[in-house]
Structure formats: C-alpha cells, structure tokens
Backbone:
C-alpha cells in the first residue's frame, strides 16, 4: 500500500463495521450531504484503529460530487466553501508561515494540478511589510512547484525537505494529482488529510513521503484523482462489460455465465496483475483520463487555490472568490 | 468511416488480396524494411480501387518503429530521413509557398503534436528578402496552429479555409495527433497521405475535411496516433486478458472457453459499441495514453518538423538536423 | 501617422480649441472623473472634424488611472465597470456573433496582452445549444490569437480577414498592446475606439488595418500602451534630466541654460529622429517596459476580458467579475 | 558593488595597467580573437590583486560577438565550442554530480534565460542505471529553475542552499540573465566565472550570493546581459545624442558646448543617480530590451545548454550540437 487514499479510508472503515453498524475501536466516521455534495470524514484516533486500518492516525476527508467535472460555477463555489471549512478546521491553532507545494508535472495536463494551484494562491511571505491595498488578515504564504524527477533529475522530497529546513514554515500544504483506484472516482472527489502524502501516486514517480515525520512540521495533503492506471481501468471496464452482457444477453453468454461469476469473485489485485501482464508487452505504462481534462484541471486548481486562500488568509472571504487570482 | 488512416489502407489492402497474393485492381502495395523501420505504401490508382477500398485515390504511407516512443536519437534520425524522402516524393513538382497547419490543442499534451511542429518548422515566407545568414534554397513557408473549437468557438476548417483564400499557398501540410484504432499503434507509427485529413480523429472534434476538394490546393496530412479511445482500449485489453487466461489457465477457464472464443469472433465494432455502452455512464468520454507522453510528443514533433524542413527547404540537409530549430 | 491613438485624439482636440475654450466644428469632447479614474471621450462627428484632426470619424475613449499598474483590486473592479459601460454604449444595437481577436506575441510579455485576453473571455459560439449551467443571456462569442508575422510568416490582417469571411461575425473586438508616445502613459491608460486599429503599434509589425472598411463589419479596438520605443523614452528622459538640472543646479548649468531651452523648444519628432540616429548603431531596435510587466499584463487582461464578458453577454453582471474566468 | 561582472573585471584591469602596459600584481589578462569572436580572460591570482580589483580571486571570462544577437547558426556553433572549452577548463578535475540552477522568471522574456537553459540540458542523475541508447560518458546532472521571489515568496538562495544540502553535488552551474551596465553589451557577451553569482543583477531581486562560501561547493556562473536599467540607458543615450549634436551641428550647440563637455566628464554613477531621480516619479522601475528578445533568448539558451552538455558529459561532442535537445 503505497498511497494514503482518504476514500479507501472510508471504504475500509465500512468493511470493518461490526454487526450493529458501529465502527471498530479507534475509528470514527462522519458523513453528511450538503446540497448534493457528499462529505465523508474518517478519524483514526488511536493505535488500535491505525493498526486495524493500516493507516496513520489522523483525518481523512473526502468531498465528492459529479459536478466537479462539469462547468457548474455555482456548485464549484459551494465546494470551495466546504473545502475551506474543512481545511481551516484541520489547521486550527497553527499560526505562522504556510508553504504550499504543488507536486506534479506542469507539462502533462492531468498531472499539472499542483503547479496550477501554486500559480493561483496569494503569495505574501515576501511582501508582509507592503501588502496589496485594502487587504488585512493575510499571513505569510509561499509556494513552489518543484517539478518531477524526469525533468529535474532530483527527487521531489529532496527539494521539499531542503526548502523546509530554510523557510521553516509552520505548515506545509501539498497538492497533487492522484491515480484513482476506481474509474468512478476520476475528477469527482477532492481528498484532504493531515497525515501527509506519499508521492508516486500520480502520473510520475516521487518517492519520499511528505509528512510530519520527514519534514518536522504538519503536512496537509490535498489530492484529486485525475487519471486511472490503464490496467485497472481495463479490468474495471471488463467487469462492467461482462456483467452487462450476462444481464442483457444471457442466451449469448450461455455456459460462460459461471466463468463470468468466477472472474467477478476474484480479488481485484489478482485481476489487475493479470491484466497488467496481458497488456504490458504491447503498451507499456499507460493511463486513462477524460477528454476534457484540460478544463477540469483548470476548475479543480481554481477550487483548491481559492480554498487555500480563504482558509489561510483570514482577510479573504466567500465574496472574494476568484478576486485575487489572475 | 470518418478518418482516413493509412494503416487501415494497408490492412484493408491485405484483406482484399486475391488467392495468389496479388492485390485487387487499382490497388498497389509496397513494403520495405530499412534498418528495422517498416515502411508501407498503398497506392489507390483508379476508381475501382477507390470503390473497393472505400477511400480516396492517392498515397497512404505508414512508417512504423517501436523505437519512435523510446529515447533513441539514432533511430529518430533514420526516421527523419525516411519521412523526408517520402514527403519529398509526394510533393514533387509542387513549387511555391507552403502553409503548415498544426491541428490540435496546445494545452492537452497528447493533442499538442501539431502546435509543437508549428513552433519548430523554419518560417521564411515573411523574410524571403532577408534570409538567415548562410542559408540557400529556402522556399516561402508559413505556419499556424489554429487551436481547437473548445477554446476558440471556431471550427478549425473555417480558420484554415479563410487563411488559404488569402495566403494562396501552393501546398498545405497538416499535422495532427490521431486516435488509434488499436493500442499497439500508439506512438509507433507516422502516417502520411496526399489525400488530406478529416479532423475529428484526435482528442478534440474538428469536422470539415482539409483536402484538395475543400481547400483548392494539394493537402499532405501527417498524423501520429498518440491516444486510443478508452472503450477501444478496454475491449482490446479484455481480449488480451481472456486469451492469455485461456492459454495459461485452461482449467480455471473450464466451460468458459467457448464463451471466450465466441467473444473473440465477434465483430470489433459490435464489441466496441457494447463496451462503450457498459462504461460510458460511469466515465464519459475518456482516452488512454502513455505515462511518458510529454517526452514522446517532443520527439515526434522534432522528427516531423525536421522532415518538413528538409523536404521543403532544399538548402537544409541531413547534417542540418535540429540545426535551425530553437 | 500610422496609429490611431485615442489619447492623441484628446491632445489634438485640445490644441485645436478656439479662443473661448470651445472645440472646432465636428469635434466633441467630454471628460469626467469617476472616483479618481479619468474618462475622456472625443467624438469626431463630421468630415470637417475628421480632416482637422487627421483621424477617422468615430469615438476615441481613454480610461486613465495610475492604479491600473498597481495591485489594487478595488480600483480594477471600478475600471472594469467603466470599460464595460463604454464598450456597451459603442456596440449598442449590434446583435449577433462577436469575434474577439487578440493581437500580439504570446511569448513576449508586454506584447502578450491580446492573447491573454483571448484565453480569458467566455467562448460560447460552439455551445449555444448546450450552455453552462445557470447562465442566461449569452450571445455567440468566438476568439482567436492569430500570432505575429515573425512566428507564423503570415500577416495578421490576412488571418483575420479570412476568418471574418467564414465566421461572418456581427462585430470584431481587437485587443492589442501598444507602444506609447510618452513614457507617462505606459500601463496607465486603456484606449477604446470604434474606428478600428492599425496594427504595427506594438512590439511587432502587423500592417493591414483592422477596420470596417477592410473587414466589412464594425471593429472595436481596445489598446493599452505597455511599452515605449527606446528612442522616445531616451528623449523624454533627457528632457526631464536637463529640466531638473536647470532648476536645481543653475550654477552648474551656467551658460548651458539657453542650449537646454533651445533643446526643449525643438519639435518632438525632430528630437526623436536625432536620438534614433544617435543610439541605433549601438543598440538597434529596443523598447522600454516596467520590471513588473508580467503582473501588470495579467491585471490588464483580466480587466479587459471581464469587461468584454459583461458588455457582450447580458447574463454576466458586476457580481460575476472573474466568475467565469479560469 | 553587488554584481561580479566579468566585463568589468576586464575594464578594471585595463585601468590598473602600469605605465608599460603591464598589469598590476596578482592580475593576469589574456585576450584572443577566434574568427571574430573576442575572448577575454582576467585571472585574479592573489589577495593583492583581489584587493586592487575589489573582486574575489578567480577567473572572469567574457565571450563577445555582435553575432550572438543575430540569426547566424554558424557563429553560434563557434561560440558553443568556445564556451564549452572555457567551461571545461574551469571545472577540470571536478568529478561527480552537477546541479544546474536556472535563475530568473520564466514568464518575463528577457529574464527567462536560466529557466530555458534548464529545460534544454541533458538530465541524467535519475537514470544513471538506464541511460539513453548509444550514449556513453555521461555524468549525473540535475537541474532546477527555482523561480523568483515575486512568484514564490521564497528567496532563491534559500531554495538552492536547501537543495545543495540534500543533493550534495560536486559542482553548481548557475545561469542568469543580467542587467548590463552599458547598452552596448546587451545580448553581445556571455560572461563566465568560477567565483559565483550575486543574484539581484537581472530583472528580479534575488539576494543571497551563490558561491563556494555559501554553498560549500564550486559555483560556476554563466550570465548574459539581456536588459539595461532604464536610467542607465537614458543616460548613455543622452551622452550619445549630445555628443553627436556637438559634432554635427556645432553652430546650433553654440555656448552649450562647454556644458555638454561638463556633462560628459561627470562620473557615470552621479549621472545615473540624477537620471533616476528625474524619471522615477513618472515611470518607476523600468528596463530596456531589444524587440527581438524572444528569439535572442532562444538562441542564447541553446548556446549555453549545448556548452553545458558538451563540457559536462564527455560523450557529447561537437557533432552532437542540438542532438539531445528537444
């Protein structure tokens, strides 16, 4: 398990429910629906919960809406305020400089979420003595998009750790495009956690985890699945295809039905491995992403940058959405 | 049939071979292997051939090598000279101004091939009286990347036709990223034809064909499949998965074997349609592309721009590869 | 006179005032100050006025504020509404498709104003049957940044005229970065006219005028001086230097005073020509621009794109500033 | 004295020549002309020389040609080999990882030299076990463009020092666009030194010197003046103007002649300060750059990146110019 996915935290917590629908010791779950936007929070509060879940103690929040990937400004503004509130709650009591890290590759569209957020947050650390006219309540904020190893030759974690040593921020906020585990999650969920991020999740490969243990300061990670690995996609798609075939054309399937059921009951990880082995010699390492990914990453970076601006800078409020961003 | 794929011309010609391995009337096929790079040419030379093939009369050339998608400069240089030779042969006798059109979306990596080529060809039309020092044998060449309808609101064909009316070139060369029909073709083939291009093939949707009929001048199209539609990909991958399963674990497959064979024998187009129906409600319109697509498009645009420079400007030769490109 | 500058219209009108402070026949002038933002309108209403002014009949509006070039969101929003109102008034009664043309070179910062505006206006022409959720009152709008001749080999006017023939818009809005005639105007004035634009004003050279005569439809031009020619700058700066020296150190100047006065009284155009002759062999063609030009062009493109969105799309109003722009 | 300019080293050394044309103790000067390209080397070899020159001990090399700013590929290739040779000599005996730092602002054209070089050098550090086909003699090389404080809120030196601590390179090569002290130097000289660089020279403000003292490893700096401060430009231009006026129209100048001579004899620094005071209230902080700066920075970044590739990677030679750069 190389990535800490908040959605998996939710799924895992549900699998671990006891007979009465309660959750296991050390795990607390909270779900609510705000105007059609689902917000799920899993808290792992003790070592027993962490061991059972196989995850670090902390918060795993998922904000989910199919409208994220659609040109719907009103819903996007609603999501901005939800993300702002949750972000503010996670960093309550942390004052001082914020360092925003935009992970990913500026020149590969679905991996450019982090760099795009960096270009949209309100940078203030260097002008605290000479702030823009009419703005109060700003705190020092700085940001860097360190690039990816394929273009710099340097592991992202090396750049960030060096930077933290010199900037000495009170808080790191890392943004990354993720590889989804299920096609249904692509561009539909924003994932937020105070347990940091283990890069390598997205399109590129970035290995050293960015978390409090490695960096010495709290690390908030905001991730959005924008791609899915091609083998995972093909396996999920095959499942949907065969399931639908069995339902709609049982005669055509005939004696193949039990085979389809056997396939369905296989472990996902086994199927993924077999699919990978089957397609890899032909195609190598591929990913799947929506045709409109360019616009979607624009909307997502806008949502996340606005939420960071509002949660970090007390002087920026809901009516200021997009106001300091051009 | 909305796209004119040169590879399909080859496949189709092979299906239409007569019993003795000869081709049908009006279709000529030529294959050769130059240092491991496959070059296939299909010529449709009369109406009967065009009718049988369902394609316009003209040349369909495919240059194919798995090394295109790998960082192998020596093979890329070999491909540049092959592409140059074939391009030069297709435009033999056409003198005067060349207009290069880079189709596609600059901001979506696998669709940015055309705009990247435009930024790398040697533009001379505006400086024919004041050419760079030391260069002879240049002809007037101009270039435009007209963008995609989603970003401009204008159909590409409208921009190009208007431009041709005013620039009055002797030749149009259009470059586009294509959607492959098979995963095995992605980033492995460069397709060249003198019958024009029907945009809408790639990631975006661009409808009016760019060809001699519409533009009034010869149109050379250079296309490279850089993506594959997600449903086609999933169908191909399912086929590979089930085939491999049947071979390697016949016991597990058991009575499912005949079902798998039935699936294999279905028409591709039926399977694609069924796959599309199965996955579309979940994922919408997606495409598949390699993780290293950023680098690959860089290599491909370099190969194509060098070949255009060498084929169009007589003063640029093999030892000048990359020399006028920065 | 190669460029139609609205500011020059104002200056010229003032020079042509009669003894009683009235303006000459055929020229009407209107000035007002809205919260410190100066808005000047010159109307040339008949042939006699046009002949006296040496300019086409039409409106020349200048919006001027030193805060344009400063990070002052509140003033920028005020300017957006002033520009919107003036733009709306100029195009009153014109319905139908709008074509926005962003002149200039995307890759030279002070010349990138036009292309940046194109990327920020709300493009709707291709989706009139499927508009974004919650938006009414949109009209068909399309946009293109045709690039500059140095990068395409094609004169801008050729691209635009071809496009207008095929798109058949009811209105063209052209945006361009201009070269100022005085250093005091750089990044301080937004100039608006319904008489079109004669490219060649800015950093590049683009020759065919875009106006109703050439394009067959009304052409609104929006220009902002973002650079000043180096010779003009040096001449103005020399004037300031010598003037200040004469005032502050009359003893040091001594008998040079009358020489300084002679210089001051020379025609500007003579001084510019002499300065050009003096510096050109050393430096060639140079321009002057502020160090913070990157941010300023970002602010300016935001102001102009918001005003175009609000003036053209009736459904977008003041509270929607920046709302559809990401 | 905030910047270490190699050209100033040359000028200063000449001013310090003794009566017989010899140089002062501790300073060695070497000039040669290679096919019209001037190469000047100043070596400060002891403390006495350093004190007299007001500069750190080390090498200051200037490569100068008016053809740098012109589209002349043959001369550019000559300059590449000269720069390669000088660079190789400066780093003789230094083995191990090279870290290339591209200073400056990617989005302001004349300040984008450093980031453009970073995107063109051959990055190998992350693939030393899996190098491109057919390449030997590569050493580990990594690169970062850390951005400018105005966009990140972080001083460049903080990013670089942190990075050096973790990457532990054997050598840092820093590239920066500089502000020239004289208009005649813009885009005509490439400056190379092994004494490091004091950022703040160019368009932005970057303060901590990058040198062996601060970073703990040898630092090679490569700088090119691409702009000149507007006040310096105006002062120089005024001097040229008045000088030419006095020569060509002595009658018009009349009694102003002695005033012009007085002005000419003033200290440059006094004149610059007075010019700054005269123009600053009107225009603020401005710079001057050539109209064709976009192309010139492309050529310069190509020259420098090729020279770094050839000097650092033994396997890349003169016939490989541009070969690994796309």
Residues:
């Amino acid at each position: 398990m190389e990535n800490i996915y908040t959605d998996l935290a939710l799924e895992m917590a549900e699998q671990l429910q006891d007979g009465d629908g309660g959750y296991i010791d050390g795990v607390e779950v909270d779900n609510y629906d705000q105007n059609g936007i689902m917000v799920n929070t899993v808290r792992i509060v003790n070592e027993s919960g962490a061991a059972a879940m196989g995850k670090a103690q902390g918060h795993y929040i998922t904000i989910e809406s199919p409208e994220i990937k659609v040109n719907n400004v009103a819903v996007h503004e609603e999501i901005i305020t939800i993300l702002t509130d949750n972000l503010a709650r996670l960093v309550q009591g942390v004052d001082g400089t914020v360092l925003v890290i935009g992970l990913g590759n500026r020149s590969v569209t679905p991996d450019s979420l982090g760099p795009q957020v960096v270009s949209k947050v309100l940078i203030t650390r260097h002008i605290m003595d000479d702030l823009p006219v009419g703005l109060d309540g700003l705190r020092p904020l700085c940001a860097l998009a360190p690039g990816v190893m394929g273009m710099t030759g340097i592991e992202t974690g090396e750049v960030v750790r060096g930077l933290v040593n010199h900037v000495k921020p009170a808080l790191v906020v890392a943004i990354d495009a993720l590889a989804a585990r299920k096609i249904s999650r692509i561009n539909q969920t924003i994932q937020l956690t105070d347990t940091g991020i283990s890069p390598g999740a997205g399109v590129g490969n970035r290995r050293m985890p960015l978390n409090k243990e490695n960096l010495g300061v709290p690390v908030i990670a905001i991730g959005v699945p924008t791609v899915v690995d091609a083998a995972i996609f093909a396996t999920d798609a095959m499942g949907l295809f065969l399931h639908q075939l069995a339902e709609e054309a049982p005669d055509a399937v005939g004696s193949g039905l039990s085979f389809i059921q056997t396939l369905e009951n296989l472990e996902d990880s086994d199927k993924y491995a077999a699919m990978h082995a089957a397609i890899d010699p032909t195609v190598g390492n591929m990913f799947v992403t929506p045709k409109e990914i360019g616009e979607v990453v624009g909307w997502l970076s806008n949502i996340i940058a606005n939420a960071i601006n509002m949660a970090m800078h007390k002087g920026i409020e809901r009516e200021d959405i997009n106001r300091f961003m051009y």
